[in-house]
Amino acid sequence: MQELTLITPTFLFSAISLLLLAYTNRFLSYAQLVRTLKDKYMEDHSALTHAQIMNLRRRLILTKNMQLVGVASLLLCVATMFFIYIGLQSVSVYSFGIALLLLIISLSLSVMEIRISANSLNIYLSDMEKSSTKE
Questions:
Q1: With the C-alpha atoms ordered 112, 69, 85, 88, is the resulting torsion angle positive or negative?
Q2: Each residue's pLDDT expressed in tens, for the chain with a length of 135 residues
Q3: Contacts of residue 20, Cβ cutoff 8 Å, sequence gap at least 6
Q4: pTM of whole model > 0.85?
């Protein structure tokens, strides 16, 4: 097996940082959506709004887990760089491997969240279609 250099985890470090920024932006947009849906639900306890709230709850849980696993991956990348720096090559290889696995998990959670988001938009669009056919 080839030795890891400091450059290898550095690439993953920058990719994970950008990914976490995207996750944070997604989370902030959900926070705004929660506030909007809460106000809407307080005015009208419709089944559509309730379905959107339940859908959003699942998305928030997934996004939180995506962030947690992504941060763990980032921490392991930093640990990998430290292990390489102090000369613990075998430990750095395992640390980097676990960081990669955590990144895979984070991305998989992201795919699941995207599917749920698409379902949420379909719920909203189907309600718009129903209201347009009534008119």
A1: negative
A2: 567 787 877 888 778 888 888 888 888 888 888 788 777 777 887 777 777 788 888 888 999 999 999 999 999 999 999 999 999 999 999 999 999 999 999 999 999 998 888 887 777 777 666 766 665
A3: 67, 70, 71, 74
A4: no
The single residue listed with the structure tokens 């640990």 is: 79
Contact 43, 128 (CB under 8 A): no
What separation in angstroms does the CA of 126 have from each of 22, 86, 132?
28, 58, 10
Helix, strand or coil, per DSSP, at residue 92: helix
Q: Looking at beta carbons, which pairs linking 90-99 to residues 24 or more positions away fall under 8 Å?
A: 92/4, 92/9, 93/1, 93/4, 96/4, 96/8, 96/9, 96/12, 99/9, 99/12, 99/73, 99/74
